[in-house]
Amino acid sequence: MPHDRSHLPYRTNVGAILRRHDDLVLLCERLAPREVWQFPQGGVDPGETHDDALWRELTEELGLQRPRRSCRMVGRGPATNYDFADDYEAPITKRFRGQTQTLFLLDFLGTDDEFDLGHHHDPEFADFEWVSRDEALARMWSVKRGVLLATIEALAEVFEAGFTGPTASR
Q1: Which residue ranges of the chain lie beneath pLDDT 50?
Q2: What are the two backbone dihedrals, phi and then psi, of residue 158, each rounded to the nearest 5 degrees?
Q3: pLDDT at res. 170
Q4: What is the pLDDT of residue 88?
Q5: Could you give the CA distance from residue 12 to residue 44 in angstroms, rounded to a whole number?
Q6: Which of 94, 59, 66, 96 has its CA nearest to residue 81?
Q7: How far is residue 119 from each of residues 88, 95, 123, measured CA to CA in Å?
Q8: What pLDDT digit, counting tens, does each position of 58-77 carry?
Q9: How far apart are CA 157 and CA 165, in angstroms?
Q10: Where are the beta strands (DSSP E) in the chain?
Q11: C-alpha to C-alpha distance for 42 and 73, rounded to whole angstroms
Q12: Are 37 and 30 contacting, i.e. CB atoms less than 8 angstroms apart?
């Protein structure tokens, strides 16, 4: 039986929507549980800015050695709360009821060979795919869909404008 988390705080979190030249977005499959897909994301450490946390997470989770060179920030969505699923049990659920996530939209200027999912001592992802926004919404963990929808709404003009960066040689 899941424990009551309603009295617990939300953890401050950032996430990255990497958009490729063809307007597909990067979605990553978690190592555990498998077949759970999400954007690269992670907590904001004490004393860290949202921007600094974003760049750190891109290095930790995707293995991007120079994320500020491989990605250009083009938008920042609203901070949006989501609660962990009732049946989700992990160490984080003992301290937090969910997360207040801010998604950043970044144009990815690099190539897929820059990703090294096993780079970090505690890797989170098994695989990645470039998918449409609709496909991302359909495949991502349901509790996080509201964050993506709020970001798409807030950044509608930026999404509609499409990829604005130079394309890397593919």
Answers
A1: 168-170
A2: -70, -40
A3: 42
A4: 85
A5: 6
A6: 96
A7: 26, 27, 7
A8: 999 999 999 999 999 999 99
A9: 16
A10: 10-19, 25-30, 37-38, 41-43, 71-76, 80-83, 98-108, 125-131
A11: 17
A12: yes
* Token code pair at residue 11: 């953890």
Measured between alpha carbons, how far is 118 from 47 in angstroms, rounded to an integer?
27
pLDDT given for residue 167 in this prediction: 61
Strands (DSSP E) found in 109-153? 125-131
The tokens for 39 are 């954007």
CA distance 115 to 119: 9
Distance CA 39, CA 29 (A): 9
What span, in angstroms and rounded, lies between the C-alpha atoms of 9 and 147? 17
DSSP for 16-47?
EEEE-TTS-EEEEEESSSTT-EE-SEEEPPTT
